[in-house]
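Figure S4 source data
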Amino acid sequence: MHIIVVGAGISGTVTALTLAQEGHSVEIIEGAQAPATGASFANAGLISPGHCFSWAEPGVVGVALKSLFGIGEGLGIYGPWTPALARWATLFAREATQTRWLTNSKAALALAGYSRDLQFKHAGISQDEYGGRHKGILYLYGEGQTPGPHDAALLRAAGEPFEALDPPAVLECEPLLKTARVKFAKGIYCAQDGTGDAARYATAALKKAIQLGTTARFGERVLGFDIRGGVAKGVHTDKGYRHADLVVATAGLASRHLLASIGHNLPIHPVTGYSISYESPPGQKPSVGAVSIPHKVAWASFGETLRFTGFADVGVPGESTVHKRFAELGRFAEEVCPSLKDRTALKWVGQRPMTPDNLPFLGVSHVPNVLLNCGHGAMGWTMACGSARIICDLAAGRRPALNLEPYHWNRYGLLGRRTALQS
């Protein structure tokens, strides 16, 4: 089968490789000049089933409203103020009930754990190729803070091992924090989580896919689908027509506009995140990945790179907000690792393709021969290998390992759920 994969971020490149490994003829088309130039370029690098719970949780609407008045922490809401943003925000608010949060988080955990296991056990890309480490992630809490009341039950139900740590145990797990100026009262250590540079992984996946015969077309933008008799026969690009037996939409934020051309009205909206990357100071490399829950900042190392990533701004903030976010991120990095003071950091701003329930659109579309693999939000790296395997199973006519109902394209109407959620 000849398959076109639209988009060469982490989802697209891993999908292309997985399909090529099964013997398909694969063509990957990307508007940028290189792979992983968007949300995959300098993200947090966490492969984190241990904390992939939905962002649409009870109480988040109040936090979002505070942000409109400039008193929110780590979360902002910015324009452009469009009907698409209004719809996304309404849907997000309606997902923030306990019942829906539990159901969405359960579905996220299922896909994230499945994907993590495939990546570290079966993907065929060595950890050295992308600075990968399967050493766990430490989720940290401040004084008076505790994990959510259902977090432990969700992890146990998913078979995810975790360990609660007191302050001495936190320092034993992550010796880097012994010299930190910021202190934590407790931690949750998820030993099966991991870290790695998503952009390097995407590059390695694409290289292996090309070795298997995949054609990569960069600097070529897909304009729409060729639909004949209600069936997709290929795509039209700004450089001509490309025939395909199957098309997979893995174009991140661009997937929403592309799929609108065949009648999909998918609520995928940009949520901006920030990262700063340093050359690791001598003897100051973290032992594990870590997330400060109160600060909404994560950090990890990939080879000689030490990266701090944080915040979530719905929409595209202006220059003053970006400057403020980088200043906050830099101050926090120096709190964790004082030897970073006066060191130069590589700054990056990226937009995550976020859905209201934080679950991707994954599986078949309403048009035969078009498959969806988009809208992963902050979990694109965590869910990449599992999502790619599901696409490969569908292309081969096999039943995927997971029930795909929670990720179905048709789960939303204009301002609410169209389909019922399974608990």
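Figure S5 source data
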Amino acid sequence: MLEPLNRAMDHLEAHLDQPVDMAELARIAVTSEYHLRRLFAALAGVGLAEYVRRRRLTVAGAEVLAGDRTLLDIAVRYGYGSGEAFARAFRALHGVGPGEARRTGAALYSQPRMTFRLVVEGSSAMRYRIVDREAFTVVGRRARVPLVHEGMNPAIVAFLRGLGRDTLDRIAALSDGEPSGAVAVTDNLAEGRAEGTELDYWHGAVTSAAAPEDMETLTVPAGTWAVFDSSGEFPRALQHLWRDVYTQWFPSNPYRSVPGPEVLSTRLSEDGTHADAQLWIPVERA
């Protein structure tokens, strides 16, 4: 998986002064556009679109300092419709406008070109199974929250506290399907998975029951799921599970992610410091 991804990065680097053709990049990487975006973000720690923006402005910065082209020529070459738009983007990355940078020879930010390689650690094995299942429904309550990669998510904590014990117990009692018990469902998440981007967060239960008046229903279509088991420190182990699925499991297995809700079932220890979890990710065979 990493060799085709690096070929796609080579193609991108050679065409920084042209519009990004995501379909062509995905073809070179031998995967889907959706999975390419998700995999890149997990491996690189930054969304693909943001990486392209930084690389273009890095290369443009070198041309600004070289002084061989006019600032407008550089702006147009790297996809900006006006000198003003280029100046705003340039300042946002480099902290200085292109004109001032050229006059003073200012120090600029540089986004290194990325390549990917496999680091063999062997420190842990991932337990997983592949499940084909019919459509199912999740009933519960929903909130729009920002994505947090490390530590507790304050917005989710506040949302759950606001539900109250009675509502939490009623949701858990609805469960009659797998995964059992109360589940957390994330949906409508930006493909780049950048810190702070918003997502739909559901606290619900997989059930065949109708939704009570104060709850909503999420219909999850039929499909194939990769199901991962995890056990460890809460919430660190759960957040690392999502990371490891994209950085270790997908590059090593003949599957790719597809759009759809991701479902997490968690059982906390009495003191809340340890969690046994099961993560369901929608996939297709690559």
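Residues 154-173 form the longest helix (20 residues). Strands lie at 127-133, 136-146, 182-187, 198-206, 216-220, 223-233, 255-257, 262-268, 274-285.
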